[in-house]
Amino acid sequence: MTATEVNGIAVVSDEPRQAPFRDNGGNTVYQPQTRVLTLANGSVVYGCQHCDYTSSNPNSIRPHLGKHTGRPRKGTRTTASNSLDLPLAELMGRLDTLTAVTEDRDAWKTRALTAEKRLKQLRNALGVAE
Ligand SMILES: [Zn+2]
Q1: pLDDT in the model for residue 96
Q2: Which partner for 34 in 17, 54, 73, 88 could form a disulfide, CB atoms 3.0-4.6 Å apart?
Q3: 49 contacts: CB under 8 Å, gap ≥ 6
Q4: Is-contact 58 85, C-beta < 8 A?
Q5: Ligand 1 center to 125 CA (angstroms)
Q6: Mean pLDDT of successive 10-residue segments in the chain (130 residues)?
């Protein structure tokens, strides 16, 4: 469950995070697994939808979500101290997470390159020197 208090300060509002980009239709994109938590003292932290993990950095929530995708076998407890001890299913789960993070990064890179190109075209069209 999402944190209800952080360092003893109560969470007064819990909302899904709005992604820092919009979809192709210009609509707001939500990242519901990343919670925006407003505390009683007015400060804002970011939390995990599935547990009480919180961070002041919104970008640290998505990598953390990988912890919740593992499917440990019944009766096995993973200490995660040594990857070689992990059951194959757990390793495959982590691999999926890594793939997702990598794809996410690649998608952002593509967006950045496209934006850069458009900016250049705009500058050329306007006759602005770089
Ligand atoms: Zn979590």
Answers
A1: 87
A2: 17
A3: 2, 32, 33, 34, 35
A4: no
A5: 47
A6: 95 94 92 96 96 95 89 52 68 86 90 93 82
| Centre of ligand 1 from the C-alpha of residue 31, in Å | 14
Q: Report how far ligand 1's centroid is from the alpha carbon of 3 (Å).
A: 10
What is the CA(60)–ligand 1 centre distance, in A? 11
Closest by Cα among 47, 16, 50, 44 to 30: 16
Read off φ and ψ for residue 91, nearest 5 degrees.
-60, -40
pLDDT of 85 reads 67
| Residues 111, 116, 121, 125, CA torsion sign | positive
88-124: per-residue pLDDT in tens? Answer: 888 888 888 888 888 899 999 999 999 999 999 999 9
CA of 69 from ligand 1 middle (Å) equals 10
Q: 91 alpha carbon to ligand 1 midpoint, in Å?
A: 18
Ligand 1 mean position, distance from CA 123 (Å):
44
Length of the chain: 130
